[in-house]
Amino acid sequence: MTDAVSSQAFRRWKDNRSHSVGFGGGHKTGQSRKSERRPDFRGTPQEACFEPSFRVEPSTGPLFQGPWHAGPAKFQMRVNGPLKIARIHEMKFSFPVTCACGETFLVQVTGTKFPKSAQCLRCNTAIWLVEPLGNVVGMAILGRAASEMKSGDWTLAIVLAAMAVECDLVFLFMKWNRIDLMLVRNPTHADDEGWEKQWRDSVRTIGDRFEKVSGLLTGQPFDSFLSQNAELLKNMYLRYPASKSAASLKYFFVKEFFYKRNRIVHFGKIDYQHPDAEMCFTLGSTLWQILAAMDAHRRRALEAKHSIGTQGP
Ligand SMILES: [Zn+2]
C-alpha cells in the first residue's frame, strides 16, 4: 500500500462523509423556503429559518386516470389535485458554545445549516463557529439530551443520551470499516449492507458493541484502553466515586446507564428522577469522549502507518 493510495482513501472517505451524514435533505424540489423571523433574532434571515417544518401545496403534476384491476373487482379512480409535501422535515438541535467571558449558551441549528457565528448573550461578542466534523446526528441527539436535562424531562434525557452513544458506536464502526476498505477499493452498497448486517446480527448487546468498536479502533479490549487513558474518566470518578472501584468499567457503564435505558424502553418505567438522569448524562458524555479518543487513536495509527499529514478531528 503506497502512501498516496492511503492518503487518497482517507480524503475520499472525508468527502463521502460530508454527503452521507447529511440529514433533512434540504430543498430538493426547488420550492422557496418560507422564513419566519424570530422576534429575538439578530442574525441574517437565512439563519432565522426555524419554522415551519413543512407545508403542503396543490400539485402542478399530472392528473391520474384509468382503470385499476384488483382481483375480480374493476374500478376507476380519478385523482384531482393531489397534495404533495413541499418542504422536507429537518432536524433541529442545539449545541453549547462557551464565550471567552465564561458564559455558555445554546446555539440553535436546523438541518445541516450551521450558523457561521453566534452572539454571546452576556457580553454581545460575536463568536465565529466552525462546523463540527464527525457524527453530526449523534451530536444532535446528545444535544437534545442536554436540552431535556435543562427542561427537566429526566426519562427522555436518559433515553436520548443512550441513543447518542449507540449512534456514535455504529458511526465509528462504519467509518473505520469504510476507510480500511478504501485502502483497497471503493466500498459499495453491498459492503454497507454487510457491515450493517454484522452490527445487527453478530454484535447485539451494548457490551459487545463497546468491545467491537474498541477492538477495531484501538486493538485492545474496552477496559484495557480505559486503564491507559484514565484522564478521560476524571470527571466521572469525581462525581461518582463508585465508578473508580468498579472491577470493569464496561460493566459499570452497562449496568448504571444502559440498564436504566432498558427499563424505560422495555418496561415503560418513566419516573426516573434528576439524580438518575444526571448520572446517565454524565456517563453518556464520558462515553462520547472515550469514543472520540478511540477515533483519534485509530487516526494516529493510520497516519503513522502511512505517514499521512491529515488534519481534522
Ligand atoms: Zn461573552
Write the layout of secondary structure elements.
Elements: H1 3-20, E1 56-58, E2 64-70, E3 73-79, E4 83-85, E5 92-98, E6 104-110, E7 117-119, E8 126-128, H2 136-151, H3 154-182, H4 189-201, H5 206-218, H6 222-227, H7 234-239, H8 249-267, H9 274-306
Antiparallel strand pairs: 1-4, 2-3, 5-6, 7-8
The structure holds zinc ion.
Describe this structure in words.
By secondary structure, the protein is of the alpha+beta class. The protein has 2 domains: 3-21 and 135-306, no CATH class; 35-51 and 83-133, no CATH class. The chain is built from 9 helices and 8 strands. The chain has helices spanning 3-20, 136-151, 154-182, 189-201, 206-218, 222-227, 234-239, 249-267, 274-306; strands at 56-58, 64-70, 73-79, 83-85, 92-98, 104-110, 117-119, 126-128. Helix 1 runs antiparallel to helix 3 (154-182), helix 2 (136-151) runs antiparallel to helix 3 (154-182) and helix 3 (154-182) packs parallel to helix 5 (206-218).
